[in-house]
Design a protein that fits this description.
alpha+beta; Immunoglobulin-like; 3 domains; 4-stranded antiparallel beta sheet; globular
């Protein structure tokens, strides 16, 4: 790992201050999508093993926050923008409007209540007006007075809504009536869920402990008036604590369907990571697969030292896996920065 020299104590303290803060509010969102099954009409497996209702569930990560949502408001499109399809170097020359309307980045998850059918609220200019910075996170204007827990700030959109429509969301007693009064249709936000919450919490906890340690070290350094040498050592220790982390891969569920695998990888911040699913030689022959690796995903560990990755095979492999008669064992393998970690799992029919 490259050694970084900090020539002055003030510089070292500034680095520690930056490392000790949460992720930047300018961070772009990532959206992870999983198809779940729900009980339907009281039907049980013995009466009809196929009568289950599908529900799309999401994990949205933005500005260092991660929140789960279930698709409940039936609004298609104009949701949280998914920057997993807009890597930073690729999108750098694009305007905010081009990013907002980028087709592949559109999703169906609305983290906030919305009011559709009102021209002033679907105006691209107004949608961008409440989202400062070059990377807008949402392709809508929220129609609520509180945060969704994703680092979003109601004080940004409430003035925009008031100017555009005359409605003050902060004092409106009935948001549904306020929307219909404009000729619009009120949509509640997709339901917030606990999906992957414990998984994320367990992964981020060690990093948070390191951040707390760095914060205490920063405070102590400011009070102690450390020498240049001591400050440089303190800064490098802080750098190592955040960036020289072990690589660990875990799963939202160790038994999952061919299209619903989700892995959580923790490791060094911003390091590239490759995650694969590997079947046995016997299963490769039985299913007629071209390779033992049925999934390969290239991604990057996020600025909180953790990344959720959807493990979905390509169409040809999914077609081969459709022949499954019984569950098969697999290995989920992660490689990043010369480190490796694996976990056993099972793909079920």
């Amino acid at each position: 790992m490259k050694r970084i020299n900090y020539p002055r104590a003030a510089g070292a303290l500034a680095v520690l201050a930056a490392l000790a803060l949460p992720a930047s509010a300018a961070a772009a969102p990532g959206v992870y999508e999983v198809e779940a099954k729900l009980d339907f009409g009281g039907t049980t497996f013995p009466t009809d093993p196929t009568a289950l209702e599908s529900q799309t569930q999401y994990v949205v990560s933005n500005s260092g926050y991660s929140v789960g949502f279930a698709e409940t408001n039936a609004v298609a499109g104009d949701g949280v923008l998914n920057y997993k399809v807009l890597p930073s170097v690729y999108r750098a020359p694009a305007t905010a409007e081009e990013k907002r309307t980028y087709p592949a980045a559109q999703t169906d998850v609305q983290a906030h209540a919305t009011c559709s059918g009102v021209a002033a609220l679907t105006s691209g200019t107004n949608i961008l007006a409440w989202q400062p910075g070059a990377d807008p996170s949402y392709n809508y204007i929220p129609w609520q007075k509180v945060s969704a827990g994703l680092g979003d700030d109601p004080s940004k959109w409430i003035p925009v809504v008031k100017t555009a429509t005359g409605v003050d969301l902060s004092t409106a007693s009935n948001l549904t009536t306020a929307c219909t009064g404009l000729g619009g249709t009120y949509h509640a936000a997709d339901t917030s869920t606990a999906i992957a919450s414990s998984l994320i919490a367990n992964a981020v906890a060690p990093l948070q402990k390191q951040i707390d340690t760095l914060t205490k070290a920063k405070t102590a350094a400011e009070k102690a008036s450390a020498t240049d040498k001591a400050a440089r050592k303190l800064a490098e220790e802080g750098y190592q604590a955040l960036f020289a982390r072990p690589l660990i891969v875990s799963l939202a569920a160790k038994r999952f369907g061919p299209k619903s695998g989700v892995a959580l990888v923790t490791g060094s911040v911003t390091d590239p990571v490759i995650v694969t699913i590997e079947v046995t030689k016997k299963q490769k022959r039985t299913l007629g697969l071209p390779s033992r690796e049925i999934v390969t995903v290239n991604d990057e560990i996020g600025d909180q030292g953790a990344e959720l990755i959807t493990l979905k095979p390509d169409k040809a492999t999914l077609k081969a896996l459709a022949k499954l008669k019984r569950p098969i064992p697999v290995i989920v393998h992660a490689v990043s920065g010369g480190l490796e970690d694996s976990i056993k799992a099972t793909i079920k029919p």
